[in-house]
Write a structure and sequence with these properties.
The model has no long low-confidence stretch (mean pLDDT 95). The strands form three sheets. An eight-stranded mixed beta sheet has the order 3-2-1-4-14-15-16-17, covered by helices on one side. It has 457 residues and is α/β, with parallel strands linked by helices. A hairpin with a 2-residue loop joins β1 and β2. The chain is built from 14 helices and 17 strands. The radius of gyration is 21 Å and the shape is globular.
Length: 457
């Protein structure tokens, strides 16, 4: 299976270009980037021939290690479960992770992302220290393990080291369970230097920064973090009603309201979840140029609530999608659930279709490609200068029969279930063939024993 990044020419029967669907597309790749795009040309000898091709998606929000928890937190307790009770279970899980088991779980998550059509991941990475909060000899050891997992699987990486210093608004001290996550500003600056070194061998990796939330940073710390790197800025905000209420008690303002008023939020920013917002906050986010990071599967799994997507889009807002807790890694399911959540909320159909009507699937997909590209600081899309990251859909899949063009996207997102992804290419190299990652067997073989070690502790 090809992974090289030398010159290569692809002939694509049907491709979704920025201008729309085109046939007989010749795509020339040099050093992992698209150097030329021509349409309406016959195939030449030696070209790689593909069928139905769409751009790769950016997964803008991932806590990859939580893939190891998937399915293990679905038994009810003797009291009402919530995000907050799930978080305590998550803290107990991460407390038993060592670097080797951590990397094995991250590799599995990244492999599954590629098989689902994600070609770049924004890793919101907050597990920094060893047991009890003791720093590793190499301060950025766990950042290096994230980079190693990206290298092993081939996925594009936007690394977002998380600054976490407090347990609640107003600078409350962290809890013992948060010891492996926390830093002061000086220590975090050193971590960022190590993170930059760790991702440098990857070639097209991007370094951003992630103030965890307004709960976990003070205003002064938040402002200082914005100058630590010119890359993307991601933050959890307004995910839970209890968070909104606590922010009101602390500041007299809601989280998004406070953020927009006190910080220069712009196109660098990704506001993750932003679930509980008012109309004026929706308008403010849209006007700022920031992307909202939506994670419908995780938001449903944790009982977060439903972000008002239609209102946000009508205000000119931009969104991308993420797999967050990685309880289920499926790009089509994220977009399907995004639409279905709005249908249930608004009691209508095709509520996120484009203005004036048209394909819901294509509109959602292209919005997610664009928003993910902005939030991850890396261009996506089949155009000159972009990374040659794309997904070939299986033209023979039953769900894709009887339609063409936009109908392929509608069918993939709403009707295909498993098996619709034929191949996935990153920087012009094939990482997934016949729906399987080229290193699937060895990654799975490492994952099982690693997870058992964690659970046995």
């Amino acid at each position: 299976m090809a992974r090289g990044m030398g010159g290569r020419t692809f002939w694509i029967e049907h491709a979704l270009l920025p201008s729309g669907w085109a046939g007989d597309v010749c795509l020339r790749v040099e050093q992992g980037r698209i150097a030329q795009v021509e349409t309406g040309v016959p195939p030449d000898a030696g070209t790689v021939r593909l069928g139905i091709v769409v751009p790769g998606l950016g997964n803008l929000h991932s806590h990859a290690f939580q893939r190891g928890m998937a399915g293990l937190a679905e038994a009810g307790g003797d009291q009402a479960d919530s995000f907050w009770s799930w978080r305590e279970l998550m803290y107990r899980f991460l407390d038993h992770l060592d670097p080797d088991s951590f990397q094995a779980i991250v590799e599995l998550a990244y492999m599954e992302m590629l098989e689902a059509g994600f070609t770049r991941v924004g890793e919101f990475h907050y597990l920094h220290h060893g047991a009890g909060g003791r720093p590793y000899a190499e301060r950025a050891e766990m950042c290096a393990r994230v980079a190693a997992a990206a290298q092993a699987t081939g996925i594009g990486l936007t690394l977002l080291p998380v600054f976490y210093a407090h347990s609640d608004f107003g600078g409350a001290p962290p809890t013992p369970a948060q010891a492996r996550l926390t830093h002061d500003l000086e220590g975090f600056a050193a971590l960022m230097e190590g993170a930059a070194a760790a991702i440098s061998p990857l070639g097209d990796a991007v370094l951003g920064v992630a103030p965890h939330s307004l709960r976990a940073t003070t205003p002064d710390e938040l402002r200082a973090l914005l100058h630590i790197t010119p890359g993307p800025v991601h933050i959890h905000v307004a995910e839970q009603v209890a968070e909104v209420e606590a922010c009101l008690r602390w500041s007299g303002q809601r989280p998004v309201q406070w953020l927009l008023e006190h910080v220069d939020v712009d196109g660098r920013w990704c506001l993750v979840h932003a679930t509980h917002v008012l109309a004026e906050e929706i308008a403010g986010i849209a006007a700022s140029g920031a992307v909202v990071g939506l994670c419908p599967i995780t938001e449903a799994n944790l009982g977060d609530g439903v972000f008002p997507v239609r209102e946000f889009l009508r205000a000119g807002g931009r969104f991308g999608i993420g797999s967050d807790s990685n309880v289920l890694i499926d790009s089509a399911e994220e977009l399907r659930l995004l639409e279905y959540g709005q249908r249930l909320r608004l009691r209508g159909r095709n509520v996120l279709a484009p203005p004036g009507g048209g394909s819901t699937g294509r509109f959602l997909f292209e919005q997610a490609v664009s928003g993910g590209s902005q939030a991850l600081g890396a261009a996506h899309g089949l155009e000159v200068g972009g990374s040659a990251d794309f997904v070939e859909l299986r033209s023979g899949h039953p769900a894709l029969q009887g339609g063409a063009g936009d109908a392929w996207l509608d069918s993939w997102l709403f009707a295909a279930r498993n098996g619709a992804v034929e191949s996935v290419w990153r920087r012009g190299g094939r990482l997934v063939e016949d729906g399987r990652h080229f290193r699937r067997d060895e990654i799975v073989q490492r994952y099982g024993p690693a997870l058992r070690r964690v659970l046995d502790r």
